[in-house]
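Comment thread on ticket #2218

A.B. wrote:
> Attaching the input chain for the structure job we discussed in standup.
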Amino acid sequence: MDVKRFLFQGRPSDMTSSLIILAARIAFGLMLLNHGIDKWLAMETASLNFPDPLGIGSMLSFSLAIFAEVFCSVGFIFGALYRLCLIPMIITMAVATFIVHADDPFATKELALIYLVIFSLMFFTGPGRFSIDALVQNIFRK
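C.D. wrote:
> Ran it. Output below, let me know if you need it in another format.
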């Protein structure tokens, strides 16, 4: 094994990095999507008790959370409008971490904080080679 190559892998656009980004998009996107689908299926009862941290109404807050967790997760998974999809996801997790669960024990807000960190980091890495955004970009380059 070449130690130098192991320690200094190369540019983030290389094949290995793109595969890792793809795996992370699929794993974390599916986890948040599952969370959002559970919310969506319980819409009638859950929306009544859903927090209204921004003062826009429980139903609108609930609908925005579902939008971020379901529809934006799908875009995130496929790498379609990647950064645009991440913005509502990041905002939702920031609100959950720092407003809704602000006074709760760390264990309660931990999952939202993990999502927030991962989605924030992935915002800066970009979607990688294996994404709809990369495909569209390659089409327009030709």
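A.B. wrote:
> Thanks. Noting for the ticket: The mean pLDDT is 90.
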